[in-house]
Each structure stands twice: as C-alpha cells, then as structure tokens.
Design the sequence.
C-alpha cells in the first residue's frame, strides 16, 4: 500500500467491525495481521488469521499466528517457488497447529504485473492442506495506487477463476463491493457484490465436475 492511500480503520476498530459482521450474519471472519503483537487480539474475534503474501517468510509473525490455535491462511509470496511454501508451513507445524490453508495470488517478475502459474495449485495440493486462489489480488497492477481505476484488470476475473477451479483449488478468494469504482482500495480489481451469484455459478459447476472426475497422478 502507498502511504498516501487508505490503510484500513486500524486493529481495534477493524476487529469491532468484524465482530459485528460475525454476530449479525453468522459468518466466519478472516483478516490479515501484519505484526506478531496483533495475533492474540485478532484471534479473539477472527476465525482465520491471514498472513500477507509479502510476510509469509517472517518467522515471528507466522509462529505467533499459529500459536493462537486458529486456522492460519498462508498467502503464497509472489517471490517464492511453490514448493518452497513447505518452509513457512513447517513454522506453523512447529507450534502443534495443523490448521493451515494455502492461498495462491500469482508471481511478480518486476514488471508491475502478476502471473498465475496453474502448476502452483498442483504443488500446493501435494502438501495436504486446502488450497485457495486469491483471484482478485492476482489481477492487481503493481506500481499503480490501489484506488486508481487503472490499478487492476477486472476483465480477467472469469478466465482466471475458472482456470483455478478447474486446476483443483478448494476455494476462491474474491473481493466484492457494491460500487467497486468507489472502493477505498483495490477499486479496479473488485467484483460488484450484486454480480457475485452469477459469477459463482460456472465455478460451482466446474468444481462439481472436478469432484466427479478426481485428478490422478500421471506417471513420469
């Protein structure tokens, strides 16, 4: 995030909002933590503690999140080979916590763009934990402010999400907003919340086909 743009309401106010959502709608709630000192307070409200992609190798942060006993959603660092996610996984396991979700969000090569490699989903599936595809963050354009209308490529959402589900992910992470163009962050990559139901229909159909025809290893 740029220092010139919205960073969220802060830990205390953010947790109050999520607690209200949890109470009123009965949803499980998830959010990032960015510092080890935030883990305990966040765990009092959140059902899942999310480790941001850039911070997935920060030992103290990952370990403190794991020590809470909550599910840890470990986002794949844009700089990390998929098989090397075994290292932050080991940090979580070292605390006795085996409640882990792995989330893919693409790779960056220094060209202000992200590339999603479907082979990552295969590697993550071999690690034995649920795999999620963060499709809306994967279409962000680096170097452009999050609130800028040119900061994402929303037109790729259907193609990428369907390919991820076809590749065997267990869930899809989708940011939504009633009016995405007015969102304070990720304005160019969010999906209009009123389009979400139609957007999900083909994904559920593809997922059903995957369950019917389970993937199997092909001999080398």
Sequence:
């Amino acid at each position: 995030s740029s220092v010139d743009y919205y960073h969220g309401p802060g830990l205390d106010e953010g947790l109050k909002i999520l607690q209200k959502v949890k109470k009123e709608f009965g949803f499980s709630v998830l959010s990032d933590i960015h510092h080890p000192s935030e883990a305990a307070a966040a765990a009092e409200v959140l059902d899942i503690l999310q480790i941001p992609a850039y911070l997935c190798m920060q030992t103290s942060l990952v370990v403190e999140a794991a020590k809470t006993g909550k599910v840890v959603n470990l986002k794949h660092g844009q700089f990390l080979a998929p098989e090397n996610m075994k290292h932050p996984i080991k940090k979580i396991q070292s605390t006795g916590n085996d409640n882990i979700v792995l989330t893919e969000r693409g790779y960056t090569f220094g060209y202000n763009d992200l590339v999603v490699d479907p082979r990552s989903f295969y590697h993550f599936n071999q690690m034995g934990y649920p795999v999620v595809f963060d499709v809306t963050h994967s279409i962000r354009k680096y170097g452009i402010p999050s609130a800028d209308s040119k900061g994402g490529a929303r037109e790729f959402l259907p193609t990428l999400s369907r390919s991820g589900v076809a590749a065997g992910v267990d869930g899809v992470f989708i940011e939504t907003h009633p009016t995405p163009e007015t969102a304070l962050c990720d304005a160019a990559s969010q999906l209009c919340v009123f389009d979400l139901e139609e957007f999900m229909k083909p994904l559920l159909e593809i997922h059903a086909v995957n369950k019917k025809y389970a993937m199997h290893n092909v001999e080398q």
About this structure: Helices lie at 11-25, 39-43, 59-67, 86-93, 119-125, 157-166, 196-212. The CA atoms of residues 96 and 207 lie 31 Å apart. The first helix runs from residue 11 to 25.
